Amino acid sequence: xxxxxxxxxxxxxxxxxxxxxxGGVILFSRNYEAPEQLHGxxxxxxxxxxxxxxxxxxxxxxxxxxxxxGFTLLPAAxxxxxxxxxxxxxxxxxxxxxxxxxxxxxxxxxxxxxxxxVLDLQTAISQVIGDRAFSADPLIVGKLAFSWAAGAREAGMxxxxxxxxxxxxxxxxxxxxxxxxxxxxxxxWDRDLRPFRHMANNRMEGLMPAHVxxxxxxxxxxxxxxxxxxxxxxxxxxxxxxxxxxxxxxxxANAAGSYAERAATALQAGCDMILVCNNPQGAREVLDSLADxxxxxxxxxxARMHGKGRFTAKxxxxxxxxxxxxxYLNLLEAEASLDLDL
Length: 342
Prior knowledge:
There is one protein chain. The chain is of the alpha/beta class. The protein has 13 helices and 11 strands. The strands form 4 sheets. It has a 4-stranded parallel beta sheet. Strand 10, helix 9 and strand 11 form a beta-alpha-beta unit. It is globular, with a radius of gyration of 19 Å. It starts with 10 loop residues before the first helix and ends with a helix.
């Protein structure tokens, strides 16, 4: 899965997207000017290949929402966790309707899926996760994530939970450093992994491993670890969805060597699709190294990640679920104002 430089496809990018090892595109804010422009860009991407390339985006809400102007501004996941503390059923219903709204809006422009929800635990340790997590309680995280994903699925969109087996208990940001979690496996299994286990048992379509080294468990980061992906995730947890690597351009991914070596290590560990962003030369290096790569099981899993159905903006506004989502967004905003004593 590759990225693009701007709001239109260049000739070089079109060439990269036609490479047989390319399977998808991840969009960023720089690729967006207006809904009509984005829809046209995605139609062009989808028309390049059959089956079409997957198109994804990070549309969690809060700090991590790539598409803003012309899309509903979504709350940080922690706002839903805070609501759960006082009104559990309202929070679950809100997560469902906001997940539906997020997905329905993305489907209007043809996006297949969002890399959401975050399944990490909220702690005072990780600032890069912080309010992106629903709660510090793994049971609450699992319940809210389930509702969010169920709402997205209603709108025809699969979900990708992240960052397996849990990024909440490390201070370093894997974009700039290699985080090391020294806890024993039993502690991670009993706490951080509970939301992932819950979602693996409830049809979560995709998961993304963390670029985190769990030093008491394995000597390589989770995204490069056959133990974490094949033994824990696939065998013990029974997960049969897609495993997406996190971006191989992140500093924490450097541990595996060159871009080609990173790609090979991630795929051998059990990833079905690897992400290479913000480094066109690295992306080309990876594609060249995978010219003859073929993994039918991964291809079958990835086929499930295509979005289904289409909405127009008019369809969304006329759907009763839109009104419910707006009511919950207003409720969450009011709760936030009370918390800030405004």
